[in-house]
Amino acid sequence: MIGRTFVALVLAAAVVAPTAQSMAEPLVTQGIGSSSCAKLAADLKPGEGLQNPVNLMLYAWVQGYLSAANVALLEQDGKHVDLGTLDESKVVGMVASYCKANPEHKPMAAVDDFIRKATKLRAKWDVGTVNWNG
């Protein structure tokens, strides 16, 4: 059930998302995490879990954002944030609380704050192994 809902949401987002050619400036981030906290706060329903489509979109976006942040952290100094305890209720609750308190910010700022404050764990990682510049 969640799998089909997620696929439907991703496809819907792809259809309505503006193309890179229509943007005046290069697009660095996109998705629910770069939307307005003022708009998002009313739509997040922490008590509904992933049955709420907005909660589901946020949780999926945060997972991807945190995974990318972890690769960047690992490449920087061989440390990462353990995401094992960060379930959907913690993610949705964290962003909902942040957005209610900071409606002028973006949800991404809540995740960035989490990353800054989180304990960083050392990992066995060879810095410089990810080559995105080919």
Automatic annotation (TrEMBL):
Tell me the organism: Rhodoplanes roseus
Designated name of the protein: Acid stress chaperone HdeA
Alphabetical UniProt keywords:
Signal
Q: Which residues form the signal peptide?
A: 1-24
State whether keyword Signal applies: yes
